[in-house]
């Protein structure tokens, strides 16, 4: 297998995680059995290697957050919905504790990111093939085409409907794929690119990020780029990077979805009176409804089971028809956590990022990884889906360790 160890339990634990990370960008349900298997074998390791236990106090924040979710069941009318969320969140309780018994090395952690990287490349190629097929089918059915020039005109006009945004990533949410790409870039760009293959891979990841058109990912990428530029001491290289950064900004700003998002933000005060719907508009409306609800229940929130139900009622009250029809959550994990667990759960989640910022402030490269996680949760409720929860409960505890996966020792290895 991919991880070789004398103890078959440890080997199965890591191999299950490797396969799960490879499958993350390929399908919503594909990695779930392997994550579950890794949790089971992780529990076995906890009882087998009790003498190797190393207490990491910051990792206890995750079980505390899980306890708040469970406590939220006590004042939830929708117990079935709350129980489903608590069951999906069991990895927040288990993985941070499991990693107190597991001593990961540099090669193992790098292999974890290697598998995620390979999964992203396979996902990109699969999405290109599917989008191309959809575009060809669309063009062949178009009655406007009479010659080669009309064919090229239709392709030029309509390609973005199949290659930009959520339509380009049908199997997994585009925002999740963007987070995976940014974390892989943050991990691998600690060191200089030394081969053509590395340049090609990074180029593919940037192209993938552009096509996914995640506004949150664009903002994070801009922050990461600024941090990396300031980290360069050679003035000539710094000026060159600034020029490349400016050209990149102009390129990303020309993405069709960016212009839409800018118009929505510019007219936020009148957005409620507008017709039509877009993902950007829906997200802004979700944020508005969530903040109004938080004002009415600032201490305990509405419970793990009732948070979404109360949000849907607020959509109906405010006339947010599109959000109600698609039953959108808060589209912001901090707001979502506040609705579910109140101030205490929200404070625990913020505390995780405060500790993470303190651990990763040693260099701009490491701090950029903190930005990826912190800002991504501003645009996505990651801790409502199993894959988002389990990914967060694996990567973040590893980052919080004293001997972090981004530490200088790991980089040298």
Core attributes:
disordered C terminus, 20 helices, mainly alpha, 413 residues, 70% helix
Order of helices and strands: HHHHHHHHHHHHHHHHHHHH
Topology, number of strands: 0
| Poorly predicted segments | 271-276, 408-413
Could you give the distance between the termini?
Answer: 22 Å
3D shape = globular
Structure description:
With 413 residues, this protein is an all-alpha fold. It has helices spanning 8-23, 32-48, 61-71, 79-88, 90-98, 106-141, 148-158, 160-163, 174-188, 196-212, 215-230, 235-253, 256-266, 279-296, 307-318, 321-326, 333-359, 364-379, 386-400, 408-412.
Brief overview, please?
By secondary structure, the chain is mostly helical. Helices cover 70% and strands 0% of the residues. Helix 3 (61-71) packs antiparallel against helix 17, helix 9 packs antiparallel against helix 18 and helix 17 runs antiparallel to helix 18 (364-379).
List the helices and strands and how they pair.
Blueprint: H1 8-23, H2 32-48, H3 61-71, H4 79-88, H5 90-98, H6 106-141, H7 148-158, H8 160-163, H9 174-188, H10 196-212, H11 215-230, H12 235-253, H13 256-266, H14 279-296, H15 307-318, H16 321-326, H17 333-359, H18 364-379, H19 386-400, H20 408-412
Helix pairs in contact: 1-2, 1-6, 2-5, 3-5, 3-17, 5-19, 6-9, 9-10, 9-11, 9-18, 11-12, 11-18, 14-15, 14-17, 17-18
């Amino acid at each position: 297998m991919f991880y070789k160890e004398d103890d078959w339990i440890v080997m199965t634990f890591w191999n299950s995680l490797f396969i799960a990370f490879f499958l993350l960008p390929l399908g919503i349900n594909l990695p779930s059995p392997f994550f579950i298997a890794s949790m089971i074998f992780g529990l076995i390791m906890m009882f087998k290697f009790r003498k190797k236990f190393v207490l990491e106090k910051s990792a206890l924040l995750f079980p505390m957050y899980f306890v708040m979710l469970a406590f939220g069941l006590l004042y939830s009318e929708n117990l079935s919905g709350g129980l489903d969320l608590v069951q999906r969140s069991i990895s927040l309780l288990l993985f941070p504790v499991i990693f107190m018994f597991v001593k990961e090395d540099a090669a193992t952690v790098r292999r974890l990111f290697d598998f995620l990287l390979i999964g992203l490349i396979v996902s990109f190629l699969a999405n290109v093939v599917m989008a191309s097929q959809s575009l060809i089918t669309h063009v062949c059915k178009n009655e406007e085409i009479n010659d080669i020039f009309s064919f090229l005109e239709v392709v030029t006009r309509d390609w973005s409907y199949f290659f930009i945004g959520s339509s380009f990533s049908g199997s997994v949410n585009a925002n999740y794929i963007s987070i995976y790409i940014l974390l892989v870039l943050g991990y691998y760009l600690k060191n200089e690119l030394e081969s053509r293959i590395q340049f090609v891979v990074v180029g593919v990841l940037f192209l993938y990020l552009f096509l996914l058109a995640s506004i949150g990912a664009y903002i994070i990428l801009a922050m990461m780029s600024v941090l990396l530029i300031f980290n360069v001491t050679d003035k000539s290289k710094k000026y060159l990077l600034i020029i490349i950064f400016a050209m990149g900004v102009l390129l990303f700003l020309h993405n069709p979805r960016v212009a839409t998002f800018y118009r929505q933000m510019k007219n936020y005060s009148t957005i409620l009176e507008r017709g039509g719907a877009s993902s950007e508009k829906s997200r802004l409306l979700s944020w508005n409804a969530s903040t109004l609800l938080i004002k009415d229940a600032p201490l305990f929130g509405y419970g793990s089971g009732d948070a979404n139900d109360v949000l849907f009622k607020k959509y109906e009250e405010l006339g947010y028809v599109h959000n109600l029809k698609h039953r959108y959550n808060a589209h912001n994990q901090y707001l979502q956590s506040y609705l579910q667990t109140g101030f205490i759960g929200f404070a625990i989640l913020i505390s995780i990022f405060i500790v993470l910022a303190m651990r990763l402030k040693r260099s701009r490269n490491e701090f950029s990884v903190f930005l990826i996680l912190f800002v991504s949760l501003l645009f996505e409720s990651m801790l409502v889906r199993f894959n988002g929860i389990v990914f967060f409960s694996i990567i973040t505890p590893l980052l919080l360790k004293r001997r972090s996966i981004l530490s200088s020792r790991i980089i040298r290895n």
